[in-house]
Design a protein that fits this description.
114 residues, alpha+beta, Lambda Exonuclease, Chain A, 5-stranded mixed β-sheet, 2 helices, 39% strand
């Protein structure tokens, strides 16, 4: 419950009354690749989308670490799929690590997974 409360407080403090969409499906075509997945938490703000991805394994992911780089490809695909389908950009990507009580903003190059 504490992890959930912390996440809800973070989202409310940072994004106010923006709409939160949980387990949001993503389906898009990029060249010969079909992008299919679910975004853990998609925040719909007036300025664009915010993606929050939950990673619940023990420990933390270093901001420059190899594990984080592995998630960047997936996040880049989701960001490009959102923009392709909606015409609106994904402006922020956050990694939520509830076990470590961390929410970390991640800078992504949306073309990183090409």
């Amino acid at each position: 419950m504490a992890a959930s409360d912390r996440l809800h407080a973070f989202v409310s403090d940072r994004f106010g009354d923006a709409r939160s969409l949980r387990e949001w499906p993503v389906h898009a075509v990029e060249g010969t690749q079909i992008i299919v997945g679910r975004i853990d938490l998609l925040i719909d703000t007036p300025d664009g989308f915010v993606v929050i991805d939950h990673k619940s394994f023990p420990g933390t992911i270093e901001v420059e670490g190899e594990r984080l780089l592995a998630f960047a490809g997936q996040a880049g695909l989701y960001a490009r799929a959102l923009e392709r389908v909606t015409g609106r950009a994904c402006r922020e990507y956050w990694l939520h690590q509830p076990v470590a009580a961390l929410v970390t903003k991640v800078a992504l190059d949306p073309s990183s997974s090409r």
